[in-house]
TrEMBL record, chain A:
Coiled-coil ranges from the UniProt annotation: none
Keywords: Centromere, Chromosome, Cytoplasm, Kinetochore, Nucleus
Name used for this protein in its record: Centromere protein M
InterPro entries in alphabetical order: Centromere_Cenp-M, P-loop_NTPase
Subcellular location: Chromosome, Centromere, Kinetochore; Cytoplasm; Nucleus
GO CC annotations on file: cytoplasm; kinetochore; nucleus
Encoding gene, per UniProt annotation: CENPM
Organism: Vulpes vulpes (Red fox)
Function: Component of the CENPA-NAC (nucleosome-associated) complex, a complex that plays a central role in assembly of kinetochore proteins, mitotic progression and chromosome segregation. The CENPA-NAC complex recruits the CENPA-CAD (nucleosome distal) complex and may be involved in incorporation of newly synthesized CENPA into centromeres.
Lineage of producing organism: Eukaryota, Metazoa, Chordata, Craniata, Vertebrata
Quaternary state and interactors: Component of the CENPA-NAC complex, at least composed of CENPA, CENPC, CENPH, CENPM, CENPN, CENPT and CENPU. The CENPA-NAC complex interacts with the CENPA-CAD complex, composed of CENPI, CENPK, CENPL, CENPO, CENPP, CENPQ, CENPR and CENPS.
UniProtKB/TrEMBL annotation, chain B:
Lineage of source species: Eukaryota, Metazoa, Chordata, Craniata, Vertebrata
Organism, scientific name: Vulpes vulpes (Red fox)
Localization, UniProt: Chromosome, Centromere; Nucleus
Domain of life (superkingdom): Eukaryota
Keyword Kinase annotated: no
UniProt KW ATP-binding keyword: no
A Pfam match: CENP-N
Protein name: Centromere protein N isoform X3
Amino acid sequence: MSVLRPLDKQPGLNTATILLVGTEDALLQQLADAMLKEDCASELKIHLARSLPLPSDVNRPRIDLIMFVVNLHSKYSLQNVEESLRHVDATFFLGKVGFLAMGAGQESHCSIHRNTVTKLANTYRSPVFFCDLEREGFRATVAQRLVRMLQICAGHVPGVSALNLLSLLRNSENPAPEDL
Amino acid sequence: MDETVAEFFKRTILKIPMTEMMTILKAWDFLSEKQLQNVNFQQRKESLVQDLVLLCEKKRASVHDAALLDIVCEDIDLFDMEQFKSSFKKILQRALKNVMVSFRDAEENAVWIRIAWGTQYRKPNQYKPVYVVYYSQTPYAFTSSCPLRSNIPLLGQALTVASNHHKIVKMDLRSRYLDSLKAIVFKQYNQTFETYNSTTPLQEKSLELDIHMDSRIIHENRIEKERVQRVTQETFGDYSQPRLEFAQYKLETKFKSDFNGDILAERKEPLRCLIKFSSPHLLEALKSLAPAGIADAPLSPLLTCIPNKGMNYFKIKDK
């Protein structure tokens, strides 16, 4: 069973790679485009995958950040993410994994409760961001956030590590269950 | 006469309705007037057919003559539009005192019928008519929804008798778009000529992907995407789908569960539920499900069989 590990490869020079995992390809593509529009000193690489595990015969760079994208309107997308999580090594969850949940704004279309995704994120000790990827303005905001997060996870921001960021995010947004 | 030729004659003559028998035999012009006069056309059809086949044998009819008879059958329009209209109107008027029937001839041997229903004591209600379109060369008629459900069997009977059929069956297919219903029922929705050059279409598709792709974006599951596109194309084709607004599934099934002691699975009575899919263009929406990543490909055959089976209302029961 092929598993993604965070430090099994050498990093590329000034390169930061993010892996977006989600079933709705068109939206992932749009998010990727939005991220590339951001001003960024690092060289960005964006990998889009429907699910994990990734095809093994490909030569790919070291992945610095994985974002799992769940559409609250689709149980299928949550199921897909849950199954993909099994193919990620535990060490990735030290600040290099996040969850994006979209569609919370239209509650009547939601077949997954927001708390389900929050609980999932808490189980994996990772942050969750609720967003709307369908509207350009909101998408640009999310893209900006992801780019900053990616730079930190790739080690391009001096003085801040992925783990630092994780504890900062955790204390303000989702306290760990032990802290409650 | 060869047995197979005799059989061919028998079957061809059997296909001819009794009302047209004389006309066709005369047009065929193989049996003479005198011979035809000697035949008893009042007897049962099977016996009449036997007599006619014997006559053909005596006259040494060949398989070519049988083929000619077959052509004559096809050529003579066995359907008389005026007779259909008058018969249809008479049947309704005989059964209901107050009913108004209007006709309008349309293209392709189609007739539009408008029926305004009344009752014994009330004049026909012009604001709630029923429309029927009958294609005389086919065994199909399309009707709009009938506000007075008690008149539906009568309407069915009138259509059946007037068109010389012996039974009418209601199809579980409904839509607001007559053209789409026609496309499904006459199986005309998939008529794109397949001069398929297996290399070019794929090339075109991968070009589309490249235009949007920055080289910094890498699709990991490209192979899976291509598989989904291929399966979708195999199921739905390249043509535009006929337009339906609903698909409805009435389930009467027992609940199945993996674990023992599940209360729902122990119910003796089946669960009844109704699942309805609605969309401005249902089939196009279904076609886009897998490529959009909302469902797995291939889709459930319950969804993809809709145009093929000509149904969008299903009843599903446990066998």
